[in-house]
Specification:
The complex is a heterodimer of chains A (257) and B (112).
Chain A: H1 2-5, H2 20-31, H3 34-52, H4 57-66, H5 70-81, H6 86-96, H7 100-111, H8 118-124, H9 130-139, H10 145-173, H11 179-198, H12 204-223, H13 228-256
Helix pairs in contact in A: 2-10, 3-4, 3-5, 3-10, 3-11, 4-10, 5-6, 12-13
Chain B: H1 5-28, H2 36-58, H3 69-85, H4 90-110
Helix pairs in contact in B: 3-4
Classes of the chains: A mainly alpha (257), B mainly alpha (112).
Chain lengths: 257, 112
């Protein structure tokens, strides 16, 4: 541990905790700083959107508690307002949230620890969302294996509770918040996500995927708003993977020959 | 019916959302974390998320649609610059991004 702490930016490293339960608390504490404010702002916006759309408070809270993935929740409300069918809503939310599948696949090996019951993985899966995922991918590798799942669940559960509370507050405040403030609140999320991904640029494979994805995302969204995001992942991700593999093969060939 | 309908939608959305997460757990057991398939899935995930974030900034839906693209890009650039200059101070970065967007947008209204 201590030998690896000197390298790399300190922001992505966490020192080991004395116990798994301390790791869970540590995760919750890390979430209750800036991540909670930023995500809270996003769900504040969601809560007021729900009220303006004529959705009840309980339904808004239930959406955050059970869905907890903001882009899909916004799609749900927008489609409800225009009176879309059950099939249309399910398809749209399914497409918007399809990113959660590869995110979960990529995260689980980082959290895996011998002896963890399977149901805990299925429970932890509910907390897979951009903020908790990115932070866990960056910080868990520097933690001992038995502390990783507690850290992630502590972080995710704290953010989840904050999101539910923020949805309620946003519902109550709807209409009272000036438009310019709402703009700022809504803009917080993408800016925050952009900045947390900066730390991943020191890995070539991730940097290639992030760079190509950022360019392809808006372009393919113009081509097809429904499938654009999935196409972005598959095309830009596969291209980044191929380039990374080719560069790695060339480096090996040069070293060997 | 009218009372129950939105609940049906929320439950359907919740089910399809958890389906992806649960399926991810089931699939993760079958993929070798040291293998190429896993590296490819990770690359697809990072590209997807970067695409989503870029889309939220470049082509937003909702209240941000009322702001100018150049203002949003300038705000994102300023946030990134301040973040890097301040040795990755996240708070200063996001506050800069949001302030620049709000000020530029306000400026367009006040001095068209």
């Amino acid at each position: 541990m201590s030998s690896s702490r000197g390298s790399g930016p300190s922001a992505t490293r966490v020192a080991a905790y004395p116990s798994p339960s301390a790791a869970a608390l540590g995760g919750a504490r890390a979430a209750l700083g800036l991540p909670a404010w930023v995500l809270g702002a996003g769900f504040l916006g969601f809560g007021s959107l729900c009220r303006q759309a004529g959705v009840s408070l309980w339904l808004s809270l239930a959406s955050t508690a059970t869905g907890w993935a903001l882009p899909g929740q916004i799609a749900l409300i927008e489609l409800y307002v225009v009176g879309a069918s059950l099939l249309a809503v399910t398809l749209a939310v399914g497409l918007t949230n399809a990113r959660l599948l590869p995110m979960t696949v990529a995260l689980i090996p980082e959290l895996r620890h011998e002896g963890t019951p399977r149901w805990r993985y299925y429970l932890a899966a509910h907390f897979v969302a951009v903020t908790a995922w990115t932070i866990a991918m960056q910080r868990c590798p520097s933690l001992p294996r038995e502390q990783r799942m507690p850290y992630f669940v502590g972080f995710g559960a704290a953010l989840w509770l904050v999101s539910i509370a923020a949805t309620g507050i946003g519902f109550a405040l709807a209409g009272f918040v000036p438009n310019t403030v709402t703009l700022g609140l809504v803009f917080l999320n993408p800016i925050y996500f952009m900045l947390i991904f900066v730390a991943d640029f020191r890995y070539r494979g991730r940097a290639l995927a992030l760079g190509l994805g950022a360019v392809a995302g808006p372009v393919l969204h113009l081509v097809d708003p429904d499938w654009g995001l999935l196409m972005t992942g598959l095309l830009a991700g596969s291209a980044a993977f191929a380039i990374d593999q080719a560069l790695a093969a060339r480096a090996t060939a040069r070293r060997d020959g | 019916m009218d009372e129950a309908w939105p609940w049906v939608l929320v439950l359907a959305a919740a089910a399809v959302t958890y389906l992806w997460r649960g399926l991810g757990i089931a699939l993760a057991d079958r993929i070798d974390p040291e293998g190429r398939v896993f590296q490819w899935v990770a690359a697809v995930t990072y590209a997807l998320l970067a695409g989503l974030i870029a889309r939220l900034i470049v082509l937003p839906v909702g209240p941000l649609e009322a702001t100018a693209l150049t203002d949003r890009l300038a705000a994102a650039g300023a946030a990134l610059a301040i973040f890097l200059v301040t040795r990755r101070n996240m708070l200063l970065g996001v506050v800069t991004g949001v302030s620049v967007l709000v000020l530029l947008t306000f400026g367009r209204v006040a001095w068209p």
